[in-house]
Fold:
Amino acid sequence: MRRADRLFQIIQVLRRSRKPLTAETIATELETSKRTIYRDIATLIGQRVPIRGEAGTGYVLEKGFDMPPLMLTPDEIEAAVLGAQWVAGRADRVLAKAAHDLIAKIVETVPERLQPLALEPASRAPPKLEEEEDTIDMTRLRAHIHAERKIQLDYRDEHGRGTQRTIWPIAVGYLETVRHLAGWCELRKDFRSFRIDRIVQADFLDERYPERRTALRVRWMKSMHMSRLRER
Structure:
């Protein structure tokens, strides 16, 4: 483990503990020596990290301390970039742009020695899919989901039959080639999933639906679980 990574890990170990930790305890977790921990603690204190304590009694990180943003480990950088690549290739244009901006921010924020992990990651997401323009405003859709407001859809099924549905939107699901809008359908009195590319038109209503989204999501997850059990 690089020394810079070890200093970061010491802060993380102290952050999650509510009682003083001895150098021996920290050394055991990080698989290093007590002498190394003593030296690293002294370095952190010299860098004005508010650590209280001394050898033999234990160390405590004072409350209120926060590290600079994006103090990421190499694995966290790899995970963040891989996720952003996937979003850039599968999400709508607004989220895709946000994903590219996120990668750029990671590159600019992390130490120079870690920048290659973001610029040339070892893991790669599939290439971007070619797709038609969305018939629904995805940014407004996400806002309505967070606001717990109803949406009225003009929708065509796989056979081209059109229906009008008022739904309580819960989440947007991203599959390999298509996106789905999940929600409670007032017409069917049940949870339904609607392919985004089959939505002809969407009217975003001001009316809030009568149930909290968190509770609705719990019922939705239970419903999907029961459906999977019945299919077995």
Q: What stands out?
A: The helical segments are 3-15, 23-30, 34-46, 74-90, 93-109, 115-119, 138-147, 213-231. The chain has eight helices and seven strands.
